[in-house]
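The authors assume throughout that readers already know how a fold can be written as discrete tokens. For illustration, here is how one protein appears when written out as sequence plus structure tokens.
>
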Amino acid sequence: MNIYWSGGMNKEYDLIKYRKDILDTKSKSFCGAKWYNATTWLGSGTTASCHHPPAHKIPLHEISADPSAIHNTQHKKAMRKMMQRGERPRECEYCWKVEDMKDEAVSDRVFKSIIYTNEDLKKAHEADFNDNTLLKTFEIAFDRTCNLACSYCNSSFSTTWAKDIKKSGPYQNMVSDGAAAFQHDGSWADPYGKKEENPYVTAFWDWWEDGLAKSLEELRVTGGEPLMSDQVWKLFDWFEQNPSDMRFAVNSNLIAKKSIVDRLIEKSKGVKKFHLYTSCEATGKQAEYIRDGLDYELWTNNITRFIKEGNYEGINIMMTINSLCLFSITDFLDDVFKLKELTKSKTPVFSVNLLRFPSFQSPLALPDHIKDYLREKLSSWYEDAKDRPYWHDFEKASIERLIDYLVIVDAPHRRTSDKMTLWRDFKTFYNQYDERRDKSLSVFPEILTDWVDTLPDTETKPITVMPSGDSTEQYADDPDLKKIAEEEGWVLKPDNKNIDEALGDYDK
């Protein structure tokens, strides 16, 4: 364990000291995740260094030559070069926004680096950027099969969302930077279907047998809903037959019938270090509105049952902070602490992830009077709750960061649409969402619905041709960005073009 994380009265100070003493001494933009971590969607053949940057395509010719190219893409190598030089990759702006709030801010760059040894980080910083690296932490999704259709998700990650689009067509009259996410059926993300062999899944298993299973310290499976994938149960079988010190983690929405939960509990007993990740960030009707298909009581019952009957090293609750969850987030946090009291420990732990896409669903897209209301509500709760037992220091830090974020940061990302555009898309989207899903925004307080009622309607030319929805083509409508991307070879068809040149100051 890293010394900066191992103890001390003030862990927040330790994290700041770690950033300055370890990361920033290599470069002010260095992050270990670019070398030792990957988030990869095998169904679509796309990858990123973690869950924050936009995904990019994995060239098929690269994995045919070397299956480790599902991580070591030319795109990532270009980003590593930038970090070694102290340049900020544009795709990592989530962390830059947090760090630019104040000098003492702790971004995810810290949390995603501190899990590796200082020796590992030194080795990465001094390595040739073009060298292949062995993963230590790996997050994969085998496909997009999912039984939920959360409001901020889309067809690229959920087959239930795809059914919505195929039944009712693209969402109409939306124009912000997040609009396109709801105007396609996500077929690009599932090109191989159920019957055709997926070369990216094949590359994974080839690399798994050729060293990946030995190098990994943690494998985490996401989705879709992983418990609906045969590949996940294949991994459970592997761990049963191959005792390993690797942490094996599975993300599940836990909206599953009893037989599936029974199987999960039983299979967890064959894994030495099993971690369960699950997601929620609101309570009751509001949670069920945000995460369509969720049954909050069932979710609570299933996580409680796993706590009591499952075999686990850790249980983690991931909170995706969106524009709607903050109305009941304090009630949800109270429920989380009830679960901690059940274990009489700091388990389950919770994490706070700030939604940036789609922009109109970010909490930062809300008008100031609602943000102020929600910030005060959360601040008041935290002031009363911060002395409770079973807090992790990083949990406190994440709540404090969220409170600051609501007042300091004005936009979810650099190229977001203006506020009125986001507000109009907010109204337009949820009007259609309510009609399609038989829901009503009225489950939220009047301070929200009264504001929505003041917004004008939007009417644009109807969308009749469904776009592809391929998020890796994010620069297609931006000639300047597309030109830079093509010149530097780090998007769409990455190669070594201009690799020996500095990759530019994207803020100019």
User: Anything to note?
Assistant: The longest strand covers residues 314-321. Residues 144-189+252-453 form one domain.
